[in-house]
Design a protein that fits this description.
By secondary structure, the chain is mostly helical. The protein has 9 helices and no strands. It has a domain at about 60-199: Tetracycline Repressor, domain 2. Helix 4 runs parallel beside helix 7, helix 5 packs antiparallel against helix 9 and helix 7 crosses helix 8. The longest helix is centred in the N-terminal third of the chain and has 26 residues, at about 55-80. The relative contact order is 0.10. Keywords: DNA-binding, Repressor, Transcription, Transcription regulation. This is HTH-type transcriptional regulator BetI.
Length: about 200
């Protein structure tokens, strides 16, 4: 009989073991056996808490998304004004945890697998929609109405593209450089509004 209060701890242990297994073996070769070895538990424990590999993989991706959202929420709470809020979203998108080698490999594996797995695709869309919603909320207060959608899509795509370039080890591009490039894009979008109003 599991001890009371052990379930959240055990689930987190298995999620961390899944991340470690994907880093070590890749997505395709990660199995219940490799995860259980990483966690130091029997395969039956995984079935007990998650029912199988698919549910555990989805729970792992969901845990990473919850982490990302917690960084965004904390950053937004500390920001003052719409421009600072958008810059906070950019900073949170390139948080240090997101660039740990194990986490990078896991994110890349999930994004690659999402088109073939309905649950992972749902989670990917949830992430994308939240990012765009957060950006759009403040961009509406900073750019002309006709440019809100374009600025939102452009900045969201730039954040994801820069993250991917960083994750793949693009020379000279780290988290700090990525933040600067994304903020430069934001500032150009804001400058266009000013120029339009002065014209």
């Amino acid at each position: 009989m599991p001890k009371i209060g052990m379930e959240p701890i055990r689930k987190r242990q298995l999620i961390e073991a899944t991340i470690a297994s994907i880093h070590a073996y890749g997505f395709a070769d990660t199995t219940i056996a490799t995860i259980s070895r990483e966690a130091g538990v029997s395969p039956g424990i995984i079935h007990h808490y998650f029912g199988g590999k698919g549910a555990l993989l989805a729970a792992t991706m969901q845990a990473l998304l919850i982490e990302w959202r917690s960084y965004v929420v904390a950053a937004l709470r500390a920001a003052d004004g719409p421009k600072a809020r958008i810059e906070a979203i950019i900073d949170a998108s390139f948080a240090e945890r997101q660039f740990q080698p194990q986490v990078i490999v896991t994110w890349l594996a999930f994004w690659g697998q999402a088109p073939h797995d309905a649950m992972l695709m749902r989670l990917q869309r949830l992430y994308a929609n939240r990012l765009k919603s957060n950006l759009r909320y403040d961009l509406r207060r900073l750019v002309a109405p006709s440019r809100v959608d374009g600025a939102t899509l452009g900045l969201a795509a730039l954040i994801d593209g820069l993250w991917l370039s960083c994750a793949l080890g693009h020379p000279g591009l780290g988290a700090e450089a990525a933040r600067k490039l994304a903020k430069d894009y934001l500032h150009r979008q804001l400058a266009e509004k000013v120029d339009g109003e002065l014209a």
